[in-house]
Amino acid sequence: MNPRSRIASLLIVMWLTVAASTSARAQEAKWAPEKTKDSEFTGRKLHTFQHGVKKEWGYAEPQRDTFLILHPKQAKANAPLYVVLHSAGHDVNSCLACTTKVGNHDIYHAPQDFYALYLDCRANKGDWWWGSEKHKGPDVCPTEKRVIDTVKWVVKEYGLDENRVYLCGNSMGGSGALGIGVRHGDVFAAVKANVPAKVEHVNSRMYFGAKTVPADVTLPEPPIVVDYSAQNDTWAKGHETFIKAMNDRKYPLFMYWGPFGHANNHENILKVNDLINSFDWLSVKKNESYPVFTNASTNDPLPWPDQLTSKKSGQVNAYFRWTNVSDTADALETKLFLVKAADLKTSFTIPTEATAAVSLRRVQKLKVAAGVTVSWTFGTAKGEVKADAQGCVTIPGLKITAEPTTLSVRTAK
Q1: What is the pLDDT of residues 239-264, one digit of tens each?
Q2: Using an 8 Å Cβ cutoff, are 361 and 292 in contact?
Q3: Residue 344 CB burial class (10 angstroms; 0-12, 13-18, ≥19)
Q4: Fold of the CATH domain 319-413
Q5: Which CATH code of 3.90.226.10, 3.40.50.1820, 3.40.50.1000, 3.40.190.170 fits the domain covering 32-287?
Q6: Cβ pair 395, 407 in contact under 8 A
Q7: pLDDT per residue over 39-75, tens digit each?
Q8: Residue 357: which residues within 8 A CB-CB, separation 6 or more?
């Protein structure tokens, strides 16, 4: 072959390589689930989708996955999305089937006016929500990448409200809801976990237990978290580490417990702890700030790790509520209060006052740099505090009552 022909051949090979690479990237960019069935379930439209994998998810082998989209009873634009992760004993179809009967895994039951996304992790070996044993650790595993990309695709495809996306799960799905959800506050407004099967997943994903988060890791502002677990459930072992980490990190947690075992029937759980559904987690919005209550005087002693035979039910932060007033470039104002006994029917004695530190999260417009001093007022109390290394502002020792009181925070002049 003469030099000219050799150069021509080389150019052709290079062109083919570039073309193949471009085609592959185009195929990945065009990743889109295929609707395989259009049906109806409990009077609501149901779409069944299947899809392959994206290369960047990092699966060792190709696989095929299924997810279901349950429509609201009445079509509506910009609707919220309820995302469900099933337990180890279910797959995506049996998970949805549970919703035909009240009391059968009640956490799976999506509100009538929501879209609902039911995901699957049973079809492919080792593809558990926590990414199987070998994927435990701080790194994002293929399963998690698949879940997040699927949620984002559904929100865009159906024109849903990206600020009202909620993640929930039962047992293994509860572990997945915590492990995937808490790390992705940029996607989920709030997370609710029914008897999560261990907290190892979320602890590892959030670097809980470590003194510091690695400098090259950026964690989004967390979603509000609701967790109800039982001290007589072996899957709940280690919850003290999770609860302490959430408090120390100034992350939002509503925690409920009691000796109800590894239960999924809300009616039965409510007989033991009737607070589990008392906080309206589905009203939280991702584009609104919220207060985090830590070291509250009204928190009950934890049964973990040494009081696992205790018959007592308890809570962390169950009685705190708030109403946002304003969030501007100059100041943030929010009203803090305790729920009133007249507004919450419960066997618990609702306190009339509580002392807690209050941190401000998901602040939208009032940007505070690390170490900057801000001034605050709360009723007749006032003071100044410095933002921490992440720019989070915490006001210590606020006395909160059933009377709504405005907390105002602004950059100190």
Answers
A1: 999 999 999 999 999 999 999 999 99
A2: yes
A3: middle
A4: Immunoglobulin-like (2.60.40)
A5: 3.40.50.1820
A6: yes
A7: 999 999 999 999 999 999 999 999 999 999 999 999 8
A8: 250, 293, 294, 295, 394, 395, 396, 397, 398
